[in-house]
Amino acid sequence: MTTTITSLTPFIPSDKALGHSPLPDKAVGLQAKSAGLMGQLAPLTLATIEQHMEVINSYYSNKIEGNPTRPHEIRAAAQGHYSSDAKARDLQEESLAHMAVQRWSREQKPTLDTVFSPDFILQLHQQFYEGIPERLWVVTDASGNTLDKVIPGQWRTRSVEVGQHIAPEADKVASLMERFCEEYHPQRFKGDRKLIAIMAAHHRLVWIHPFLDGNGRVARLWTDAALRAVGLGSYGAWCLSRGLARSADQYKLLLHGADSPRQGDYDGRGALSEQGLLKVCDYLLDVAIDQVTYMSGLLELGGMRERIQSYVHARNDRRVPSEQTLGELKPSAVLVLYSAFIHGEISRAHSLELCAMPERSARRLLSQLKADGLLSETSSRSPLRWEIPEHAEPWYFPQLAPLV
Q: Which positions ≥6 away from 49 have C-beta within 8 Å?
């Protein structure tokens, strides 16, 4: 049977189905929570957190696909320290490539027209695969026999089966992706339907399976970009992949359920199951709300001050693990770091005042904070910018990622 764009219907759950579901309220709630988080962060603080979250997003998205590389191993690779094991080294490079695509996508600041275009989706795939070893371009079967080789940035040219799902014919992929971008462009939707449509599109993109390999990662990267472009300005300070990886079995099961054909007259009027799509959208919205709520709680001003103080206490008690010997910090370091967090950066004059000690001692403390990566500078006269070094992450953001 030939696959056409109607094979993807319903594109989103019907108004009737949504009227009996919590999805519209959840979409509105997600928008409000994201806006609230945006409002509580200075732009520079948000940028610092987004940069830090590149590692976290890479870790969790790749974990879903079976890459066990931990955040500390990713950071080590970013500094040029790779595993001596060839396979582990390849996976480190895969994680770095994922980070690079995130950075590229964010720096492009793509418009909705750009995000909802086949060219952008092709570029995500190309950017990712050109950043990983060619050995990882090879696609094998369950027995390890070579089937084919991925061509970065090109739609697949062969038929594939994913579990029980037979993906659309290869010669239909290009036209399906054109129509996919047209049907899911946010200009076609109003209000809460814009976010619901992106969640639905996440499944439909995976269902089309446009590439020979890398579809899950590209779908998540594309969804990241779509959520940011549609107006969730704080996206990047939180990410879907963390929640998806923490419930990976449910994620995969719901995607599989939405692959099912319509189950009778009470399951919508499209080719695929409306109930399956509702469950996927509901789950994705729940995950998004959970993640933005988690980060909003961590970044609440009073709570962050307490965690900065806990970090300083733990460090002075020698409970902070680090490859380097970290000296004790004076109590006034808490106020300096907290002020830098609030504003994203702090002037040198203000930081010296906050130290509340003789200038020579204050400069020594600031030098210590810079040496330990807690503050950074672009020049000897620039403001001091708040940073999140690896040894501070467990205190600043508990349970964000595994410690080892």
A: 41, 236, 237, 299, 388
| Rounded distance between C-alpha atoms, residue 127 and residue 221, angstroms | 11
Encoded amino acid at 224, one letter: D
Question: If you average pLDDT over residues 390-399, what whole number do you get?
Answer: 94
* Model pLDDT, residue 404: 65
Distance from C-alpha of 61 to C-alpha of 76, rounded to nearest angstrom: 18
Among left, alpha and beta (phi > 0; psi -120 to 50; other), residue 318 is left
Nearest in space to 261 (alpha carbons), one of 8, 2, 3: 8
Q: What is the pTM of this model?
A: 0.95
CB contact set of 161 (below 8 Å; sequence gap of 6+): 167
Bridge partner residues of 238 (DSSP) = 235
Q: Please determine, for residue 204, whether its predicted confidence score (pLDDT) is greater than 70.
A: yes
Q: Can you list the domains of the chain with their CATH numbers?
A: 11-298 (1.10.3290.10), 301-396 (1.10.10)
How confident is the model over 230-284, as pLDDT tens digits? Answer: 999 999 999 999 999 999 999 999 999 999 999 998 889 999 999 999 999 999 9
List the strands of the sheet with 345-346, edge to edge: 345-346, 384-386, 375-376
Residue whose structure tokens are 């003789």:
358
Phi then psi dihedrals of residue 138, to 5 deg: -75, 130
CA 143, distance to chain mean position in Å, is 32
Encode pLDDT of 342-355 as tens digits.
Answer: 999 999 999 999 99
